[in-house]
Amino acid sequence: MVRGANETLREIEVLEEQPPGVTEELAARARFIRGFSYYHLVRLFGEIPYLDETTTTIEASVMERTSVDIVYDNIIADFKYAKEWLPNSRANRALPSKASAGAYLASVYLTRGMYQQAYDESTEIINNSATYDLALEPDFADLFDAELTDLSKEPIFVIDFVGTNINDESRDYLAAFTGFFGQATYYPSGGWSVMVPAQDVFDTWQDGDYRKEVSFDDTAITNSGEVISYPNFSSLDGRNANRPHIAKYTAMAGSLPQANTSGRDSESNYYMMRFAEVYLIAAEAAVELGLKDQADTYVNIVRERARNGNGDGDPSAVPADISGATVADVLEERRLELAFEHKRWYDIVRRRLGPEVFGPNGLEADLPGARAFDPTRDYLLPIPPLEITNNPNLTQNPGY
Q1: Among the three residues 267, 289, 313, which one is the final residue of a domain in this structure?
Q2: Domain total for the chain?
Q3: Residue 55 Cα distances to 11, 50, 62, 87, angstroms
Q4: What is the pTM of this model?
Q5: What torsion do the CA atoms of 361, 363, 369, 372 make, to the nearest 10 degrees?
Q6: What is the mean pLDDT of residues 346-368?
């Protein structure tokens, strides 16, 4: 993605003269994707070589690691440029918009502890949600129905997976990883019971929270129509973990009439950023700035949607409105609202929660193969050995 963005930026430099704003908008798309890519890379690996459109192939092959501060400065610059030149909104949320750039700026600022900037960016989006064509989806479950997501105003930036049956590498495996073996809950052939949360993740989630119902499968349906509840999933197939499984991805892939029998040929939209997260960025930044009333307001907007369920019947009492929100409260709300959407690890890293969440009282402690968290090593992933082989000036992260 970085290479493609940089090649685009180089090609723009030699384009014939275009109408005003055209080349800037193309550059903004490329710079958004570059910033998006490096934002993930720097959080996963720490110092990494930073390559821009001026970097030659020879320079890239021997470049040393760039400091985290410089990488973040460049990420912020890319998102700022993107916000200036991209359109306010897109009908296709797989294309970046001004709202996408602003939301990621807010997220970067939150990660860097720049709370005033995070608050300003996130509330600017909230206060101008009509301009950006954003709103919370009324029914949380509809966010995970692939036939409805293209109509939703909640997504800000998505990866639109278009699965095909041509090559195995083009298929979508999240539904398989998170589904049960040998069941027909969503499609006849079932999944592989690989990505299954710890039991405590389910047990500590308050009953009555509609998001728990949407996020988990605690029953499976066999091909003969028999309903099996946890902890008896191994009776369906001995390879199944006897814990509630993630429902968000199996439900999304299985809702598509064109999905094949294993759910691999999906057209799921995977959320990279949605409007609910912007509210929670604003809430966390507000707590850090001492704006407790504003923090409560933003958390409670998200909770109200959860209480309303699918809109049929009376609202639930759970989750109740919060008062006097703390950072821990907002992080917990993020854990629930954004469960299994690839956000939790980044929260653990930026708030240095490793020893707590992987410790004896943490939610991950009872997973098979769990080990003690080493804060001197485990907040970063190892640099892939092939990268070090290809570039002799790369060094490995500590402890690997």
Answers
A1: 267
A2: 2
A3: 14, 9, 11, 29
A4: 0.94
A5: -50
A6: 89
